[in-house]
UniProtKB/TrEMBL annotation:
InterPro entries: CHAP_dom, Papain-like_cys_pep_sf. Pfam families: CHAP (PF05257). This is Chap. Transmembrane segments: none annotated. It comes from Haematobacter massiliensis.
Length: 181
């Protein structure tokens, strides 16, 4: 009888351990990989640069903030980042933590815009860190929702005020921080 108890206990422990291990495997691979690809301290460095510029009375722009925060070493107006990333960085239409979302130029944003993905909330919602969405300020963990008809992140709304998503903005895609070698 004692042997049966050990057997049942052993089987129960095995089932429990298997469930725990399988649950750990369910984490989205891209999110885990992106977090590992991010360099620690980049956001703090970007925020320090912003404070230094503001102390000197200089304007804060989205491009230098995104470059420092993400480690994606591209220069030029935000509207040029997507094409400049070709051949240097992976690009796609799936958000990943640490990637940079490239907005298309519009009449209201003739230079385009870039924002670093800081959190994946759901398949259709992310949070971003970016500069100059509100003039000369940094916005951290700002919600962005995918409103594209094909669920491909080609059109988004940005939460400019709590629970108030603004107009639709066109997005070119996401630039991932691992540079090609």
């Amino acid at each position: 009888m004692n042997g049966k108890r050990v057997g049942k206990t052993g089987r129960a422990a095995f089932v429990l351990l298997t469930a725990v291990l399988l649950g750990a495997c369910a984490a989205p691979a891209r999110d885990v990989a992106s977090r590992q690809a991010m360099e620690p301290g980049r956001e703090q460095l970007a925020l320090l640069e912003v404070k230094q510029k503001q102390a000197k009375g200089q304007r804060v722009w989205c491009v230098p903030f995104a470059r420092t925060a993400s480690g994606i070493n591209l220069r030029g107006d935000a509207k040029t980042w997507w094409n400049k990333a070709a051949g240097q960085y992976d690009r796609g239409n799936t958000p990943a933590v640490g990637s940079v979302m490239a907005f298309r130029a519009t009449r209201g944003m003739p230079l385009g815009h870039v924002a670093m993905v800081s959190e994946l909330v759901s398949p259709r919602e992310i949070k971003v860190d970016h500069a100059n969405w509100s003039r000369n300020e940094v916005s951290l963990r700002m919600a962005v929702i995918d409103v594209s008809a094909r669920n491909d992140w080609s059109a988004v709304r940005v939460e400019s005020r709590p629970e108030n998503f603004g107009r639709v903005y066109p997005v070119t895609g996401f630039i991932y921080p691992q540079q090609h070698r």
